[in-house]
Design goal:
This protein is mostly helical. It is built from 17 helices and no strands. The N and C termini lie far apart (71 Å).
Length: 351
Amino acid sequence: MNQPEQTSSSLKAAAMTVAAAAAWVLLYGNLEPVADFLLESAGMSRATRFGEALHFFIYEVPKVLLLLTAVVFVMGVIHTFVSAERTRAILSGRRLGVGNVLAASLGIVTPFCSCSAVPLFIGFLQAGVPLGVTFSFLISAPMVNEVALALLFGMFGWKVALLYMAMGLLVAIVAGMTIGRLGMERWLEEWVQQMQQNCSCGADETGEAMSWKSRLQNGVTHVREIVGKVWLYIVLGVGLGAGIHGYVPENFMASIMGREAWWSVPAAVLLGVPMYSNAAGILPVVQALLGKGAALGTVMAFMMSVIALSAPEMIILRKVLKPRLIAVFAGVVAAGIMLVGFVFNVVFPTL
C-alpha cells in the first residue's frame, strides 16, 4: 500500500474510532436513565426488593462490559507503542513494593466497585504488569476511594477516615507484595498467560513501524478475544450481586457484631463476602449497624469484605485466575481485613 492510500486508510480508521468513542460516552453516561426507563416500562418500582435487584442488574452488566471494552481496547493500542517489558519495569519499581504503592494509590482515585475494578485488573495483566502489583490495585480500588473517605469523614470524623485510608492502603500494598513474592503467575488461566507472552511492541511482522489503522485494529482484536472470553462470567457475577442486593439482614448481623466477642470480626468478614455493594451503597448499612450497637471495627471489617471480597467479583475473576490463586487472594485479603477490624476496635472502642 502506498503512502497516500495508507494515510487515507488510517484516517478512516481514526474517524470510526472517534465515532465509536462518542457512542461509548453517550451510552455510558445514560445507563442509569435507561435502567430506570426499562424498569418503569416493565411496571416495576425500585421501592420493592425485586425491582431494586433488577435495576441493579440492568445497570451494572452494561457498565462493567463497557468499562472492560474501553480498557482492553486502549491497552491493545498502547501495546503497539510500549513493550510489555517496559510497562512491567515501570510498575515493578526499582525497589521492592514501589509498584504496589503506585498501584494502590491509583486505586484511591478510581471509585469502582469490586466488579468494575476487574476490567482495569485485566488491562494491567494485558500490559505485562506484575501480578502482585495488579492485585494491589484490585484490592485498593473498591476498598479505598474518595467516595468512601468523604462519607466516613462526614459520618465519623477525620480520625476514622484517615485510619481507614491508611489501613486500607496497607492491606492492598502488603497483600499485593505477598502475592507477588509467592510467584503464582502459573496460576493465571492459560489464555491470560498466552496474552501476556504475545504483546505487540510497535512493529509489524516485517519489522516496520505500524500504521494507525493497524494499531486500532490491534485494539479491536484484543476486545474481541478478551471480552469474548469474559462476558458470561460478568453476567453471572453481577447477576449474583443483583440477587442479594438490598437483602441485608441488619438485626441478625448486629446481634453478632458486638463489642466483646473476639470472633465477631472474622464472623463479620464471612458475612460480608457473599454480599455485593460499593462503598456508597454499604455505608448506610454500616450506620444502621452501629446504631444497633455493633462495634466500629467489626462493622468496618464487614464493610471492607463486602466491597473488596465480594462473591460476584470471585465469579468474574474465575475466568482469569485458577482456583488456587483466587483462594490465596481471598485468604490474604481476608487476613488483612480482620487485622483492620481488630485495630479499629482497639483504637475506637466507642465512638
